[in-house]
Amino acid sequence: MTRKEKKDLKILVLFTSVYCHGLHTSEKALLSGLDPQLASLKRYSCCHECRQFLLYAIQRRINCPLDEKPACKHCVVHCYRNEYREKVREIMRYSGKALIKKGRLDLLWHYFF
User: Fold this and answer.
1) How many Cβ atoms from other residues are within 10 Å of residue 20's Cβ?
2) The whole model's pTM is what?
3) DSSP 68
């Protein structure tokens, strides 16, 4: 797995964790069942629903058929099912705004591109 792929997955997990902690009140648990290369992502926690989404998204990202993977919003091959595609839009919209309000300006690049 390349450094860019790991970074993309880290951002996805971070955004999902922020979304989950902001909107879901159910019990949170640390991520588990990840590829050993993604051990650094185990420190994030989320509810069962968000964890299921993340495991699906990570598996799709790892199995991406494109050699040079673009950002998902610019991709010509949509890997996610329709309901997950809408969910990732909702997660990115909510978390991007929340993180920018908290001063994470380094994420602006990913948010706009």
Assistant:
1) 25
2) 0.82
3) S
